[in-house]
């Protein structure tokens, strides 16, 4: 397949990517944007791309927060950094066997379906290997933005690594990822 595929949407992991990770956060008052998150999202939106969030929230399955608490935190993220065009949330635990929990591709495929885009027209930005694996399984492009919790082997395995959200967005908008994730 020749030619390039136009990027139409960027899906972001929530905790550790868009907002400071507060484990199993059920309190909207604890939502704090990551440095540069709002500016990065504004650039994506100004470029005419859709934005979305794909987030594992196993605290619900573990009984550490309610669905209502999780939704109130997501609503706060949307108020601070949104509005996002699509939200995909996996409330399941690691052993529930669902197809939505990253590294499975379910949330990315669901977001693509909602937005009306093919996975190869979408990029995923996240802070851990599961985000990158989910993108690869869905056929989407991906950029890893490591944090203190990102393991070295996840950094080494990632196709594209950015030092922060701003650089991740610059890479996406510059077309560096044109071939990554394209159908073969």
Descriptive overview:
It is found in: Cytoplasm. It holds the Pfam family Hydrolase_like. Its EC number is 3.1.3.-. With 184 residues, this protein is α/β, with parallel strands linked by helices. It is built from six helices and five strands, in the order E-H-E-H-E-H-E-H-E-H-H. It has helices spanning 37-46, 67-81, 106-115, 129-138, 152-157, 165-174, and strands spanning 9-12, 50-56, 86-90, 122-126, 141-144. A five-stranded parallel sheet has the order 3-2-1-4-5, sandwiched between helices.
Radius of gyration from the alpha-carbon trace, in angstroms: 15 Å
Beta-strand percent range: 5-15%
How many separate helices?
Answer: 6
Average pLDDT level? 93
Let me know the number of strands. 5
Detail the topology: elements first, then pairings:
Elements: E1 9-12, H1 37-46, E2 50-56, H2 67-81, E3 86-90, H3 106-115, E4 122-126, H4 129-138, E5 141-144, H5 152-157, H6 165-174
Parallel strand pairs: 1-2, 1-4, 2-3, 4-5
Helix pairs in contact: 1-6
In brief:
33% of the residues lie in helices and 14% in strands. It has 184 residues and is of the alpha/beta class.
Question: What descriptors fit this protein?
Answer:
alpha/beta, 184 residues, 6 helices, five-stranded parallel sheet, disordered C terminus, globular, HAD-like_sf
